[in-house]
Design goal:
heterotrimer; A mainly alpha (626); B mainly alpha (108); C mainly alpha (205); A: mainly alpha; Cytochrome C Oxidase, Chain A; B: 108 residues; mainly alpha; 2 domains; flat; binds copper (II) ion
Chain lengths: 626, 108, 205
């Protein structure tokens, strides 16, 4: 097997669709992540729309209760693991090497593998619709609802296997970005000179490597219960379903920060650029990001206030949860102070960034309400919680990702997104978002439980449910406007040039789109916001002796390096082995459900691929005549 | 982590001293063996029963630390490595202890 | 920015921001993550300790003398591993092969003990389905065994590669060091498992 893999010739083409399959270029991988994630975003949105139609009026039968369960499970799982996380990953991939002045990531093939494994996980999850029914136990899949006794079909199997494969992808990507950011910063790019987005990528990657193993173990236990008949979550054998809740939320709460910290990094890039001011309190923003990442591991039981942990545990987790609001609040003040007194360039990216601050803050405030255990008893499992999570993840993560899209689309494609459509997109989104999710607060406080497929007219929930449904359709329109803008601007958008926004960071020093090797020469960095300092050195207040942003006696800015070491660019070569390994893993996952022989074949393919990978040099020698 | 403040890439050498000699390795190996023998001895000593759990934890911690510091070279290598490893280790330990407390393993 | 081979010889690694090799940083990040993996498995074991509804219970079935021997073998393999690294670091390829083969053999011996133990338990009526002890015990020690298996394969392939010119040399002893880090990690995980599951587990119930 391995010899066959080795005997095949290495791909050399850099054009055509096959070159996208074998690419190891971080920018192309970023684009693949982004495009795939948008498709999943639309799918998840469609699931939401069907649910909103079902709930628009009482006693409807648009979908059956069983299908409704599958819809909310897949909606949550899709949006979190297949839309927001990979949208973040798209930006990590495209931007981080450019921002830190590197030619690529530390392990380009591992990076390609991450993408293909992510795609495989997404396919496993979504094909479940056609293979006997999608998972139906909610995105946190509480035991023992997921046990074979109560859930005999394959839906939960697909959920477990899909998430395991996605976990492998996320871990591989997190390992890669930690090494890249620690080890591949350009000369002079100290940690405290890094763009905040790169910092948040680093923090997020650390959260991933510590949080994902926990969900992996929880899923393994569930998988063993289902496939091997073990007793982890079987109460009759002494197993405790609460263990699942603990393990899930030890992962699940940090996961919220995996979803939200990169968007916070985006905001910290967009606001200074469009305020034409440095980020206010850079070190504070960075350290509060680190603090959030660290404290995020100590709050998980706030999801479990009502399970009866006792007053001591509830109090402890209430206090840690309230405490974690502090670094978050600190960041919000820093963002506002960044805009304060700046000369605002009110482009769409800035509009979304400001929108983010307000709607995310509302999600944060309802979050602090949940942190009070006594108050949470009223809100647990109601639409109030649904409102909260959507203000955090739509009003927070997605708005910031839209800001990032308007900001970096020109760098990625070389063309600007249409500004008029962008404004329409923004105003539609911000109105629709509040029309959809704000009424859910009222519904929740009025006692409407989450995840019910219908309700009685006598409950008095008709009005706000109808309003939320109307809002959901407005949201759908706004997303379509965005997609239309993406598609048309890709071909007809205004040419962007290297630096359309008067950018501050290194990605704006290279052409749009950047060449495959990123930088002709690796830059030498002398200050934070190096590119901006370089452009405006004369325009800003006296530099010498300095503003503290620069080393004393050193001029700010950056200069292109002329280190002979970097004068010959040696790019990593394309490889099909990452996709082979990912394919093997996906086949093995299908084999676990259908036939162990298939699992063995998949495993063999993965192992053979890994062997070829280990033996294959990262870049082919080009000039030795071999 | 002062090394990471290095202004120019590669300008500051990582804190990497020479790895220990085979003799040191053998000494560490012998210590590990002796501690294991002591552990098994303690296991069969009824007099030790009341304090057996702390004794076991201390003895295995000694072995753990010896392997990590000498065989895995954490004593000699860049502190970044120690940070990465000890970070994961402390977080894992904290979560184990928190779960044991939450499941009332200590209080019965 | 990764290593490249030209004519079978490794081209020196371009300097990195920290002066540390990418692969070694990767390995330590991975091991930090593995701490959480085994930490979660151990947490599950400990939370469920003493909660089995039916037997066999740990006290009745765990064999301290036999496991002490296999523990001893695994510990000693770690010594062989560092000696193999010391040998390749001074360019002694033959010594490297001998020590590394010894490491792999001891790892295989440990696995042999584990197979024997699992088999014995099944015959005594303890399977992963029997009770919570069986469920958590087989999962925790099974995952450790899987790690040992991967390690043995890795070590053996390094021995094999050392016969191909330029693959395992004094200059790229880092390859051996990485395998060593993994191997020692698997060893220290066992130190924890032996103490918590076997020594303390049998004493307390
Ligand atoms: Cu939470």
């Amino acid at each position: 097997m391995a010899t066959i893999v080795q005997a095949l010739r290495r791909p050399t083409s850099y054009t055509g669709w096959w070159s996208w399959v074998t690419t190891v270029d971080h920018k192309r991988i970023g684009i693949l992540y982004g495009a795939t994630a948008i498709i999943f975003l639309l799918l998840g949105g469609l699931e939401a729309l069907i649910m909103r139609i079902q709930l628009a009026r009482p006693d409807q039968t648009v979908v059956s209760p069983e299908v409704f369960n599958q819809l909310f499970t897949m909606h949550g799982t899709t949006m979190i693991f297949l839309a927001i996380m990979p949208l973040n990953a798209a930006l990590f991939n495209f931007l981080v090497p450019l921002m830190i002045g590197a030619g690529d990531v530390a392990f380009p093939r591992l990076n390609a593998f991450s993408y293909w494994a992510f795609l495989g996980g997404g396919i496993i999850l979504n094909l479940s619709w056609l293979l006997g029914g999608a998972p139906n136990a909610g995105w946190f899949g509480y035991a023992n609802l997921t046990g074979t006794a109560f859930n005999p079909g394959h839906g939960i199997d697909w959920w477990v296997l899909g998430l395991q494969v996605l976990g492998i992808a996320s871990l591989a990507s997190a390992f890669n970005f930690i090494v890249t950011i620690i080890n591949m910063r350009a000369p002079g790019m100290t940690l405290m000179r890094m763009p905040v987005f790169a910092w948040m990528t680093l923090v997020t990657s650390f959260i991933m490597i510590f949080a994902f193993p926990v969900i992996t173990v929880a899923l393994v236990e569930l998988m063993f219960d289902r496939f091997l008949g073990t007793n982890f979550f079987v109460p009759s054998a002494g197993g405790d379903p609460l263990l699942w809740q603990h393990l899930f939320w030890i992962f699940g709460h940090p996961e919220v920060y995996i979803l939200v910290l990169p968007p916070m990094g985006i905001i910290s890039e967009v606001l200074p650029t469009f305020s034409r001011k440095p980020l206010f309190g850079y070190p504070v923003v960075v350290f509060s990001g680190i603090a959030i990442g660290f404290m995020g591991f100590g709050v998980w039981s706030h999801h479990m206030f009502t399970v009866g942990l006792g007053p001591v545990a509830n109090s402890v987790f209430a206090i840690t949860t309230m405490a974690i609001a502090i670094p978050t609040g600190v960041k919000i003040f820093n963002w506002i102070a960044t805009m304060w007194g700046g000369s605002l360039n009110t482009k769409t990216a800035l509009l979304f960034a400001v929108g983010f601050i307000f709607t995310f803050m509302m999600g944060g405030i309802s979050g602090v309400m949940h942190s009070m255990a006594s108050s949470d008893y009223q809100q647990q499992d109601t639409y109030f919680v649904v409102a909260h999570i959507h203000y955090v993840l739509f009003g927070g993560s997605l708005l910031a990702l839209f800001a990032g899209a308007y900001y970096w689309f020109p760098k990625i494609t070389g063309r600007l997104l249409h500004e008029g459509l962008g404004r329409l997109h923004f105003w539609l989104t911000i109105v629709a978002l509040n029309v959809t999710f704000f009424p859910m607060h009222f519904l929740g406080l009025d006692g409407m439980p989450r995840r019910i497929y219908t309700y009685d007219p006598s409950m008095g929930w008709d009005l706000w449910n109808m309003v939320a449904t109307i809002g959901a359709f407005m949201l759908a329109v706004s997303v379509l406007v965005f997609v239309f803008n993406l598609v048309t601007s890709l071909r007809r958008g205004e040419r962007a040039g290297n630096d359309p926004w008067d950018g501050r960071t290194l990605e704006w020093t290279v052409p749009s789109p950047p060449p495959a090797h990123n930088f002709d020469t690796i830059p030498v960095v002398r200050s934070r916001d190096a590119f901006w300092e370089e452009k405006h050195r004369r325009a800003i207040a006296p530099v010498a002796g300095g503003s503290g942003r620069m080393d004393p006696g050193e001029e700010g800015g950056y200069r292109p390096g002329h280190d002979p070491r970097h004068s010959t660019i040696h790019m990593p070569s394309p490889s099909y082995l990452p996709v082979v390994v990912a394919l093997g893993i996906v086949l093995a996952a299908y084999g676990l459900v259908y036939h162990l022989a298939l699992a063995a074949v998949g495993g063999a393919i993965a192992v053979a691929g890994l062997y070829g990978w280990y033996m294959e040099p990262a870049s082919e020698p080009e000039d030795t005549g071999q | 982590m002062d090394r990471e403040r290095s202004p120019i890439r590669g300008a500051v050498k990582p804190r990497e001293r020479a790895h220990p000699t085979p003799l040191t390795y053998v000494k560490v190996g012998t210590t590990l063996a002796v501690v294991t023998v002591v552990e098994v001895g303690v296991f069969y000593l009824h007099a030790m029963r009341p304090v057996i759990i702390p004794v076991f934890i201390v003895l295995s911690a000694v072995k753990f630390v010896l392997v990590a510091m000498f065989y895995m070279h954490l004593k000699f290598d860049s502190r970044l490595f120690s940070g990465l490893f000890v970070g994961g280790l402390m977080l894992a330990t904290a979560i184990i202890l928190a779960l044991l407390a939450l499941f009332a393993v200590f209080t019965g | 920015m990764q290593q490249t081979w030209v004519g079978g010889h490794q081209v020196p690694h371009p300097e990195t921001a920290t002066g540390l090799d990418h692969r070694k940083v990767l390995m330590w990040v991975f091991l930090g993550s593995e701490c959480m993996f085994f930490g979660s498995l151990i947490a599950t074991y400990l939370v469920y300790a003493g909660r089995s509804v039916v037997g066999p219970f740990p006290k009745e079935i765990l064999d301290i003398p036999v496991t002490s021997v296999s523990t001893f073998v695994l510990l000693t393999s770690s010594l062989m591993m560092v000696l193999a690294l010391a040998a390749i670091s001074r360019g002694d390829v033959r010594g490297f092969r001998v020590w590394l083969l010894a490491t792999a053999l001891m790892g295989a011996t440990f696995l042999g003990f584990q197979v024997f133990e699992f088999n014995h338990f099944v015959h005594q009526g303890l399977t992963p389905r029997t009770n919570l002890f069986g469920t958590t015990f087989f999962t925790l020690t099974g995952f450790h065994g899987a790690h040992v298996t991967v390690g043995v394969v890795w070590l053996l392939s390094l021995v094999g590669l050392s016969f191909r010119k330029g693959h395992v040399t004094q200059e790229n002893s880092l390859k051996v060091e990485l395998a060593g880090l993994y191997w020692h990690f698997v060893d220290i995980v066992w130190i924890v498992i032996f103490t918590l599951v076997y020594l303390i587990g049998v004493t307390t119930g």
